[in-house]
C-alpha cells in the first residue's frame, strides 16, 4: 500500500510547474519586421531589386520543376516557402540560388509524403537550364561533377534545416480560399474560384507567406479576384472582418501582387553574371582582410620582441667602477681585468637594479675575454689561483688530478708560463 501511495503521489501534476520547452505555432514562421531590412544579401552589397528578382526566379524554378516532377501543388508551395525563409537568414551572394532551389524541392517532397530521387531533381533542373540557354538537351553525365553537385544539394538541404531550426511546417491558404468562398456563397462560380486560386499560386513567388498570416493572404486573393471579375462582395460591414482580417493587410497584400505583375521578366544570365561579380569582390575583400590581419600580427610580434630584448652598445661594455671581488674558491668568480669587477650576486638587490646587475655581469665577461687574448701575466696568475681551488679538474686538460704532488707541481708550472696555452705554446 505504501508503494502504491508513493507512485500515486509521483503521478500527481504540480500546479506550480510550467513547461518552458519549444512552442511551435503558425506564428513562428512570420518573420519580424526588424529582420526584413536589411537582409543578409543587402549586407553583402546586393541591390534590393536584384534580390527580389532572385527570389522570383528561384520560386519559378521550383514551380516549373514541380510540374515536371509531377509533384502536388502543396509540395511546390512548401518548397517555395522554405526557399523564401532560408534567404532571410542567408545571403544570395554566399549561397547559389539554384542549388538551394533544388534542395528545397528535395526536402519539401519528403515533407509532403511524395519523395523524389535527387537524381531526378538534378536531371529536371539540368534540362530546364539547357532549354533556357537554348541548347540541345543532353543527359547528365554520371561523372565527378555530378557527384559533386549531388553532395552540394545534400549539404544545402542540411543547411536549410539548420537555419530554419527544423521548423519546416507551413500552413497554406489554398484550402482557406475554398472555405471562404463557400462562406460568401460563391463556391459555385468556377471562374471566381479558379481566379482566386491563381492569385494564390502567384503569391508564392513573393515573400508574402513569411510576412502575413494565411488568412490575410486568402482574403487578399479573393479581393483581387472579385475586383477583376466585377463580382460585388459585402462592404458594410466588410466581408474580411468575418475572418478576423484587417483592411490594411488586405490592401498591402493586393498591392504587392499588382507590383509583381508589373515587374519586367528578369534575365537569369544577367543575374548570374552580377552574382559572380559580387562573389568575386567578396572573396577579394576577404583576402585583403586576411592580409591586413597578418600584417597587424607581425607588427604586434615585432613590438613585443623589441620591448622584451635588451641591446648592449659597444660603449656600454666598459669596466665598471666598483672594487674588484677578491673572494677565492667561489665558483661564481669570473676572471677579468684588474680594473674590472663583478657585483656580488649573493647580496640582496633592489627590484630596479636587476637589469643593472645583468649588464654588469655581461661587461665583466667581455672584459675577461679581452684580457685572455692579450695574455696578461697577472690575469694568468689570478686564474691559476682560482683553478687551484675550483675542484678536482685541471684548467688545461679538464681531467681529474690523481695526487696532490702532481696538483702542486702542475700549479707551479702553470704559474710560470703564459695563459694562452690553447694557441699552440708548449
UniProtKB/TrEMBL annotation:
Gene Ontology molecular-function annotations: cyclin-dependent protein serine/threonine kinase regulator activity
For the region Disordered, give the residue spans.
Answer: 294-347, 371-426
Composition-biased stretches, type Basic and acidic residues, lie in 417-426
The source's superkingdom equals Eukaryota
Q: Which Gene3D superfamilies match?
A: Cyclin-like
Output the PANTHER family linked to this UniProt entry. Answer: CYCLIN
Q: Which family does it belong to?
A: Belongs to the cyclin family.
Q: What is this protein called?
A: Cyclin-L2
Amino acid at each position: 500500500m505504501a508503494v502504491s501511495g508513493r507512485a500515486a503521489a509521483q503521478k500527481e501534476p504540480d500546479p506550480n510547474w510550467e513547461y518552458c520547452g519549444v512552442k511551435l505555432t503558425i506564428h513562428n514562421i512570420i518573420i519580424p519586421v526588424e529582420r526584413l531590412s536589411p537582409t543578409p544579401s543587402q549586407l553583402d552589397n546586393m541591390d534590393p531589386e536584384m534580390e527580389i528578382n532572385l527570389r522570383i526566379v528561384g520560386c519559378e524554378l521550383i514551380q516549373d520543376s514541380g510540374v515536371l516532377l509531377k509533384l502536388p501543388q502543396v509540395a511546390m508551395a512548401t518548397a517555395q516557402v522554405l526557399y523564401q525563409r532560408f534567404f532571410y537568414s542567408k545571403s544570395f551572394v554566399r549561397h547559389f540560388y539554384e542549388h538551394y532551389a533544388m534542395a528545397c524541392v528535395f526536402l519539401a517532397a519528403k515533407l509532403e509524403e511524395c519523395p523524389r530521387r535527387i537524381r531526378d531533381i538534378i536531371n529536371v533542373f539540368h534540362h530546364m537550364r539547357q532549354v533556357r540557354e537554348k541548347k540541345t538537351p543532353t543527359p547528365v553525365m554520371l561523372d565527378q561533377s555530378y557527384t559533386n553537385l549531388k553532395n552540394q544539394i545534400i549539404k544545402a538541404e542540411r543547411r536549410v534545416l539548420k537555419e530554419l531550426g527544423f521548423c519546416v511546417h507551413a500552413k497554406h491558404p489554398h484550402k482557406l480560399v475554398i472555405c471562404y468562398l463557400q462562406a460568401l456563397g460563391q463556391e459555385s462560380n468556377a471562374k471566381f474560384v479558379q481566379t482566386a486560386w491563381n492569385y494564390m499560386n502567384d503569391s508564392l513567388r513573393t515573400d508574402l507567406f513569411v510576412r502575413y498570416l494565411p488568412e490575410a493572404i486568402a482574403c487578399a486573393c479573393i479581393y483581387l479576384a472579385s475586383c477583376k471579375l466585377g463580382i460585388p462582395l459585402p462592404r458594410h460591414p466588410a466581408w474580411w472582418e468575418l475572418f478576423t482580417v484587417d483592411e490594411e493587410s488586405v490592401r498591402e497584400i493586393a498591392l504587392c501582387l499588382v507590383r509583381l505583375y508589373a515587374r519586367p521578366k528578369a534575365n537569369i544570365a544577367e543575374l548570374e553574371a552580377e552574382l559572380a561579380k559580387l562573389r568575386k569582390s567578396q572573396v577579394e575583400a576577404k583576402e585583403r582582410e586576411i592580409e591586413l590581419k597578418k600584417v597587424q600580427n607581425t607588427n604586434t610580434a615585432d613590438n613585443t620582441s623589441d620591448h622584451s630584448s635588451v641591446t648592449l652598445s659597444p660603449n656600454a661594455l666598459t669596466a665598471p667602477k666598483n672594487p674588484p671581488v677578491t673572494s677565492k674558491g667561489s665558483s661564481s668568480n669570473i676572471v677579468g681585468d684588474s680594473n674590472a669587477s663583478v657585483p656580488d650576486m649573493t647580496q640582496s638587490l633592489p627590484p630596479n637594479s636587476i637589469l643593472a646587475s645583468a649588464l654588469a655581469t655581461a661587461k665583466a665577461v667581455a672584459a675577461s675575454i679581452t684580457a685572455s687574448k692579450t695574455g696578461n701575466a697577472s690575469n694568468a696568475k689570478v686564474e691559476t689561483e682560482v683553478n687551484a681551488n675550483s675542484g678536482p679538474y685541471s684548467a688545461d686538460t679538464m681531467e681529474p688530478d690523481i695526487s696532490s704532488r702532481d696538483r702542486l707541481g702542475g700549479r707551479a708550472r702553470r704559474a710560470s708560463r703564459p695563459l694562452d696555452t690553447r694557441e699552440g705554446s708548449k
